[in-house]
Write a structure and sequence with these properties.
By secondary structure, the protein is α/β, with parallel strands linked by helices. It folds into three domains: 10-93 and 380-409, Alpha Horseshoe (Serine Threonine Protein Phosphatase 5, Tetratricopeptide repeat); 96-224, DNA Cyclobutane Dipyrimidine Photolyase, subunit A, domain 3 (Orthogonal Bundle); 255-374, HUPs (Rossmann fold). 53% of the residues lie in helices and 8% in strands. The chain has helices spanning 10-20, 26-31, 48-52, 58-73, 75-93, 96-114, 116-126, 133-145, 150-163, 168-178, 184-195, 208-214, 267-270, 294-310, 325-337, 352-366, 377-382, 390-409, and strands at residues 255-259, 275-282, 313-321, 342-346, 370-374. Helix 10 runs antiparallel to helix 11. It is globular, with a radius of gyration of 21 Å. Flavin-adenine dinucleotide is lined by residues 32, 44-48, 51-52, 80-81, 83-84, 87, 149-150, 153-154, 157, 175, 179, 181-183, 186-187, 190-191, 194.
Length: 410
């Protein structure tokens, strides 16, 4: 899908959306499960890197698809966009899954350091040397392009967990580092879903016939896959936390704007102002304790540059790397130098950037500077329904989309 590095700008995201729109109706519904490979031919949108960083908004994509095909005509595509909203809301309401994922990574790394055979098996899988041709090809495709088709992600994760019998969290970590769209909610929760940790009694089992059919005969693992899978028992259902509430924010002469890689269209939420300070912070390194590839860092950074260009201020700073407490002090000093005591920022959902923000907040608060996250209407309307499965969520989301559409055309 991305043989060349895609351009991380709002304009490039809109261009891709425009090019894809003719295919967002029946074409998508018919062909979305087929993965014809990196050389081309896939009928999915490839919009995920822009949606991930909110260089494109879910509502923009949904509205454009409805304008072109109607809600019924583009329903399959719109549902898929809403899977993203669902996973974001689901994790926001159960942040414990993010913390458990970290704990699972740590436990697996300890195991790996003690068990030479496991360490060798993991290395072989990550080098694309398992001998399962399809799996090995996907490893190379992900490393070389930063993208995998959804079906390939499902097959990959299933083979990782059930055939290669490797710790799910290390597979999720490999994805989160290498995907241009690497997202804490979609990635962690999809891996949990495949591994049978999301829906009690259900896991996703990759089958050779399915791979052969949907890769158009490119791959056929034959009897190499383990299909005798028993989903894990005793899947825990942690309590659901309340959905975050929108809060009012006030613009004062000492209010600055803070941009993160979670939402790179702040002007569509907060408006355009004569900000005394506009700051952008890069937190890509928090996605993993392993190095994050340059192409992923570069995509996040270019998105921050684009956001800075659209949001001028009396002063601008960044993109500033936020890795260590000393970086947080640099950010604090920039705020103090601009006379800012209040930094408003689009909502930072559970994940690596929120982890980085917890460190930043300590330093800011000690200097009397408050960071205020502002929730988007799309999230505040949809996340309350992210309590059970997707189809219950969709039952609530569809009428909201219909209502929104009616308001647009009124
Ligand atoms: C194991 C696994 C890991 C995944 N990790 C990520 C991840 O880190 N980041 C990520 O954005 N998606 C992830 N997905 C979901 C999905 O694979 C990608 O969003 C999709 O492949 C992106 O390609 P596209 O833009 O062409 O999608 P399209 O089919 O064109 O869909 C349009 C948009 O809808 C959203 N979307 C579509 N399918 C899903 C889905 N199943 N879950 C959530 N959102 C969806 C994406 O934002 C996507 O850009 C994962 C899926 C699996 C099975």
């Amino acid at each position: 899908m991305f043989l060349a590095q895609p351009e991380a700008t709002h304009a490039a995201g809109l261009d891709r959306l425009t090019a894809f729109l003719p295919h967002a109706g029946g074409d998508y519904a018919r062909w979305r499960n087929h993965d014809f490979g990196p050389a081309g031919g896939n009928r999915v949108s490839g919009l995920s890197p822009w949606l991930r960083q909110r260089l494109l908004l879910e509502e923009t994509v949904v509205e454009a698809a409805i304008d072109r095909h109607g809600l019924d005509g583009a329903e399959k595509f719109i549902q898929e966009v809403c899977w993203r909203t669902y996973w974001k809301g689901f994790l926001e309401r159960r942040p414990i899954h993010w913390h458990d994922y970290h704990a699972a990574c740590e436990e697996a790394r300890t195991q790996q350091s003690r068990d030479r055979r496991l360490a060798a098996d993991i290395d072989r899988a990550l080098d694309g040397g398992t001998g399962i041709e399809a799996f090995d090809a996907w490893v190379h495709e992900l490393r070389e392009t930063g993208y995998l088709h959804n079906h390939a992600r499902m097959w990959f994760a299933s083979i990782w967990v059930f055939t290669l019998e490797l710790p799910w969290a290390l597979g999720a970590d490999f994805f989160l580092r290498h995907l241009l769209d690497g997202d804490p909610a979609s990635n962690t929760l999809s891996w949990r879903w495949v591994a049978g940790l999301h829906t009690p009694g259900k896991a996703y089992i990759a089958r050779s016939s399915n791979i052969n059919k949907y890769t158009n005969g490119r791959f056929n693992p034959g009897d190499q896959l383990n299909t005798q899978v028993s989903p894990p028992e005793g899947v825990e259902r942690p309590p659901v936390e309340p959905s975050p509430m929108p809060v009012d924010w006030r613009l004062t002469p000492t209010t600055g704007l803070l941009i993160t890689e979670e939402d790179q269209l702040p002007e569509t939420l907060l408006g355009r102002h004569d900000w005394p300070l506009v700051m952008a912070v890069q937190t890509t390194g928090w996605r993993s304790i392993e190095p994050v590839p340059d192409r992923v860092r570069a995509f996040a950074r270019a998105g921050l540059d684009d956001a800075l260009a659209r949001n001028p201020g009396a002063r601008q700073a960044g993109p500033l790397e936020l890795t260590r407490p000393a970086d947080a002090e640099t950010i604090r000093d920039a705020a103090l130098a601009a006379g800012v005591d209040h930094l408003v920022t689009p909502w930072v959902p559970t994940g690596p950037t929120a982890d980085a923000m917890a460190m930043l907040d300590q330093v800011l608060e000690a200097a009397g500077i408050r960071r205020q996250p502002v929730l988007r209407e799309w999230d505040s309307l949809h996340w309350p329904a992210a309590t059970h499965g997707f189809f219950r969520f969709w039952k609530a989301a569809r009428p909201l989309i219909v209502e929104r559409q009616a308001a647009r055309s009124a």
